[in-house]
Every structure is written in C-alpha cells, then in structure tokens.
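User: Design a sequence. Structure:
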C-alpha cells in the first residue's frame, strides 16, 4: 500500500481538522499522511479533564477533539503527522497500529540523532529519550479508518508544556 504524503507547513488547527475530514473521504483508495506545524494550541483528547489538566488555557486556543489520550500542547517547532488510512487492510488491531507508528518514529529519531537513545512506551503513549518525552500519539479509529496521530518535538520550547498538568 502506498501512502500519499503532504506537508502543509504552518497551518491553523481548525483548518487541519477539515483537511483530515477530506482525507478520510479518500482513505479507502488513497491513504494519506498529512504533516503540519501549528501555532500554540491545546487539544484535549477523550481522556482529558479540562479543569485538571489545563492550567493556562486562556493563553492559547483549546479544542476538545475525538482522539484518544489526554491534553496535548502543539507549538511551532513540533512536527504533527496524521496517517489517514483504513487499518483493516493491514489486518491489525488498534494497539498494533499505535505500536507500529511509535516504532517507526523511534527508528527515525534514532537515525537523525544517533547520540541519543529513544524508547517506545506503550503505557505512556510516546517515545522517550534521556531528556523526556519527545513524541506522543493520540488517534481516533472509526469504521477502521485511523485519524489524528503523532506529535514529534523537534525545535519547540519545552517550557511551553508547563501549561499542561500531567
């Protein structure tokens, strides 16, 4: 299966939701990988409790989204990757799909930064190095089609994450 990849660059978060919806309509014939970079924004997954997790929400826009996970902070310097496809064609379940994405991310980070060690944590839904969490994942699966995906911290300011209480 071949994926069509498109990097949109800096994108308004709400616009990215529309682009995902368009990709879902094409996902059966044309699986896609969408890439973005967002201005500061907080997204709240299905497991997030707004009052407990977001400390400074008034500072940035906050969106409740239908993906798994808790609160995530997106900002410039973070690569956001949304693989949009029907995972039924791979004959795997959701856990295997998440694990595959995290392992690909781990291998890619290891190649790009050979002086660091990266480990996948399925329990904490991310990829970690000696400096902490460098990638997180939160997906939505509806009728076999996966949306949302990974956020990889490349050159963003880690202090901005202090707005989220773990």
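Assistant: Done.
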């Amino acid at each position: 299966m071949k994926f069509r990849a498109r990097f949109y660059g800096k994108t308004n978060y709400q616009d990215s939701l529309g682009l995902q919806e368009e990709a879902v309509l094409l996902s059966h014939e044309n699986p896609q990988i969408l890439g973005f970079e967002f201005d500061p924004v907080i997204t709240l997954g299905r497991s997030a409790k707004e009052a407990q997790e977001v400390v400074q929400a008034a500072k940035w826009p906050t969106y409740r989204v239908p993906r798994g996970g808790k609160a995530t902070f997106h900002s410039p310097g973070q690569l956001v990757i949304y693989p949009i496809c029907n995972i039924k064609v791979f004959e795997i379940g959701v856990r295997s799909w998440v694990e595959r994405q995290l392992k690909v991310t781990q291998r890619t980070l290891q190649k790009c930064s050979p002086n660091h060690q990266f480990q996948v944590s399925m329990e904490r839904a991310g990829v970690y190095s000696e400096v902490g969490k460098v990638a997180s994942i939160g997906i939505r699966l509806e009728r076999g089609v996966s949306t949302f995906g990974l956020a990889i911290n490349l050159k963003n300011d880690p202090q901005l994450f202090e707005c989220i209480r773990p």
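The first strand starts at residue 4 and ends at 10. The chain has three helices and ten strands.
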